[in-house]
């Protein structure tokens, strides 16, 4: 039970080996005490489920990969109309020059068409998920996500023009909490 509630800092393989060893030991004692066997079986099943969840959490899953929408605000549509479409070319170049790669463990933003810069932020370092919904973006079904981090090298990452960004923010928040728990990290708040 201790391996599930307060696990030692063992690698996953060692924990799995411990559970296999415990199962082999108890197999040799079966038939002696039904109550202890039932308690062990319950704790063993709980532990195996926790190990499976821990193993799954270590695998990095792709959540979103792609470019932002070309037009993500009503004011951009106004600019496109006023410039007879020339602004659309600018917005298109800006969109193809930005690529997001969001996984269960990190957020990467690549900017540039010829020269590229790539920012990366670990999900567990994200402290604040601020969702902004200006009227112009809401009119076209978009919003802006401001990720603020404890990492000083990339303190803020702004995501925009992604479909279902509000739901993605909730998913990222869950991944952040899961990663912090997995890494046994806590956040200190200054008063």
Description:
- The model has no long low-confidence stretch (mean pLDDT 89).
- The strands form two sheets. Strands 1-2-3-4 form a four-stranded antiparallel β-sheet.
- The two termini are 36 Å apart.
- It contains seven helices and seven strands.
- α2 runs antiparallel to α3.
- The longest helix is centred in the first third of the chain and has 25 residues.
- It has 191 residues and is of the alpha+beta class.
- The radius of gyration is 24 Å and the shape is elongated.
Gist of the model:
This protein is α+β, with helices and mostly antiparallel strands and 191 residues long.
Please write out the topology.
Blueprint: H1 2-5, H2 12-27, H3 34-58, E1 62-66, H4 74-82, H5 86-96, E2 98-103, E3 106-111, E4 117-122, E5 126-132, H6 135-139, E6 144-149, E7 156-160, H7 165-182
Antiparallel strand pairs: 1-2, 2-3, 3-4, 5-6, 6-7
Helix pairs in contact: 2-3, 4-5
- Report the mean per-residue pLDDT as an integer: 89
Strand percent estimate: 15-25%
**What can be said about the biggest beta sheet?**
4 strands, antiparallel
Give the termini separation: 36 Å
Oligomeric organization of the protein chains? single chain
Using DSSP, what is the number of strands? 7
Which tags fit this structure?
four-stranded antiparallel sheet, 21% strand, alpha+beta, three-stranded antiparallel sheet, 191 residues
């Amino acid at each position: 039970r201790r391996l599930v509630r307060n696990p030692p800092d063992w690698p996953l393989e060692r924990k799995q080996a411990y559970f296999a060893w415990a199962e082999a030991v108890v197999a040799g004692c079966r038939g002696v005490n039904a109550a202890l066997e039932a308690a062990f079986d319950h704790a063993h099943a709980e532990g195996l489920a926790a190990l499976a969840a821990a193993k799954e959490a270590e695998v990095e899953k792709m959540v979103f990969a792609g470019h932002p929408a070309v037009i993500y605000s009503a004011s951009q549509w106004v600019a496109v109309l006023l410039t007879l479409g020339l602004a659309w070319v600018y917005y298109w170049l800006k969109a193809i020059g930005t690529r997001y790669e969001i996984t269960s463990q990190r957020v990467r933003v690549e900017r540039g068409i010829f020269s590229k810069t790539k920012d990366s932020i670990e999900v567990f370092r994200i402290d604040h998920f601020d969702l902004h919904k200006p009227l112009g973006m809401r009119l076209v079904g978009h919003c802006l996500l401001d990720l603020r981090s404890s990492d000083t090298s990339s303190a803020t990452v702004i995501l925009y023009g992604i479909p279902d960004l509000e739901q993605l923010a909730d998913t990222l928040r869950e991944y952040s909490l899961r990663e912090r728990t997995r890494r046994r990290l806590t956040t200190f708040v200054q008063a």
